[in-house]
User: What shape does this take?
Amino acid sequence: MNKNKCGWCIGDELYEQYHDTEWGVPVYDDKTLFEFLILECMQAGLSWITILRKRENYRQALDQFDYHKIAQYDNQKKQELLQNPGIIRNKLKVNAIVTNAQAFINTQQEFGSFSHYIWSFVDNQPVKNEVSDYKEAPANTKLSDQISKDLKKRGFKFVGSTIVYAYLQACGIVNDHETSCFRYDQI
Assistant: This one.
């Protein structure tokens, strides 16, 4: 049975699987929130499908997204990452991975968890938008502007408002599934 899906994922099996099982599902687990944050940061200037195809490479290269280990990466480990053809080999982005792991831990310590921090911006309730065509969804909002500004203040890198909005969508803090999509009312 064919189900209506958001137009952005149609035609690529990996994209459709990600859409059907992960995108927009509310995430409260800090490890998963960190993984999505890093992947969204790596996506800056690139297409999401590029990062999605490299996701397993990132998982292997970054100790399964263990932010405690990543926060301790030294220059040798950063150089190793810059030589890894399976990930985006951009020095600023590689440095940001370590910086963001450290800022993530600091934010956890302040709020008890990163989940408490990020969900507090929406009073722990997902924002459910009414998008009829994914092309009409905003690239950023006042909410993503606010969170971006706060993340930057906390030392995070590659967290501009557009990246933050994509992160909010991915983690289900914002539901931007098209209203005709079978997932819209499921989450």
